[in-house]
Write a structure and sequence with these properties.
With 320 residues, the chain is an alpha+beta fold. The chain has one domain (45-317): Major capsid protein gp5 fold, CATH 3.30.2400. The chain has helices spanning 100-105, 111-140, 163-179, 193-201, 203-210, and strands at residues 45-48, 54-60, 81-87, 92-99, 153-156, 187-191, 223-225, 228-232, 239-240, 247-249, 252-254, 259-260, 264-270, 274-289, 294-307, 313-317.
């Protein structure tokens, strides 16, 4: 019996697979990229200004006590004053243009994810710039606004440190913070993810410090050590200014956020160490443009970052 000729509506004329013209059924889910977790918000000082190019943080030193000798005139004493000024960087933006025509042909919604990713890109720059100024201050030994304030420090614990070396360095930082009267609350140690899970995996370390209610090897959880909240981040060990956004102010590049932090293991800090001044908070706007037949979406932010209390910073590095 002769073979019937079958017409396949899925074949494009010419060389082709047998299913090229069949409809690709939309799964109902759009695959989104995974973003680095941001961790700095709420863990440093933030101040909003309504106008101006910078904000002043005044500093006052300590007063001394002394015994009075009867008959001597009390003349008073001088008290040190200083300031830290944080300047606003140029406005940081992230934008995209959505064509009406292309959006009409698309069969899944994209605008909400575009808006999220644009805002996320600014949030990443926010975190990275804060880590950059902290690492730069620690490496440079930046001093405070008045003599009574200490300096930012770096603890170099060797090119190939053990977990014990890192833990000992964190406890040494806690001792230093206590000895310099840094508040015991709102202390954080930011670590690389690999170090974080090494700390979790070290069962004796967890059991000794946290008991059953803290972090554990199965679920991770909030780890604490020596009064510090331990927070993992992928934004710590970077070559800032090379693999991250360079700072810009008044139209010119600045080096405030440029430092090689690739050997950073942990950043120990108290909330008063860093400050952010916000002139324009993070927001997303959209505008339909008739002449271009589409919608321009823009996320923008105008902020500045600086070191306020350098003695509240200590960097732990894998350096000899």
């Amino acid at each position: 019996m002769a073979q019937s000729t079958s017409v396949n509506a899925g074949i494009v004329a010419g060389p082709s697979h047998s299913d090229n013209l069949y409809l690709k059924v939309f799964s109902g889910e759009t695959m989104k990229v995974f973003n680095t977790r941001t961790v700095m918000k709420g863990r440093h000082r933030e101040r909003t200004i309504s106008s101006g190019k910078s904000a002043q943080f005044a500093a006052i030193g300590r007063a001394a006590a002394e015994y009075h000798t009867p008959g001597n005139v009390i003349l008073g004493q001088d008290i040190n004053h200083g300031e830290k000024v944080i300047s606003i960087d140029d406005m940081l933006i992230s934008s995209t243009f959505v064509s009406n025509f292309e959006e009409a042909m698309n069969h899944y919604e994209t605008r909400s994810e575009y808006a999220f990713q644009m805002g996320e890109s600014l949030a990443q720059a926010y975190d990275q710039h804060l880590f950059a100024i902290a690492l730069k201050a620690a490496k440079a030994g930046t001093a405070g606004a008045v003599a009574e304030m200490g300096v930012a420090t770096e603890d170099k614990i060797g090119a190939a440190p053990s977990l014990t070396n890192v833990v000992d360095s964190i406890y040494a930082a806690a001792t230093y913070f206590d000895a310099t009267n840094i508040p015991a609350n709102e202390r954080t140690v930011f670590v690389t993810p690999s170090l974080y899970w090494d700390l979790i995996q070290d069962g004796s370390f967890i059991n000794r410090d946290f008991g059953n209610g803290g972090a554990n090897q199965n679920s991770g959880g909030q780890l604490k050590v020596a009064t510090f909240d331990v927070v993992p981040t992928n934004n710590l060990a970077k070559n800032f200014g090379v693999n991250t956004l360079v700072g810009k102010r008044a139209g010119a590049d600045v080096t405030d956020y440029t430092v090689d932090g690739t050997k950073a293991l942990a950043l120990v800090m108290q909330k008063q160490a860093l400050g952010t001044v916000k002139l324009m908070n993070l927001s997303t706007e959209k505008e339909y443009q008739t002449s271009r037949q589409g919608t321009l979406m823009v996320s923008r932010m105008a902020v500045g970052h600086g070191v306020l209390r350098p003695e509240c910073l200590r960097l732990i590095s894998a350096l000899a």
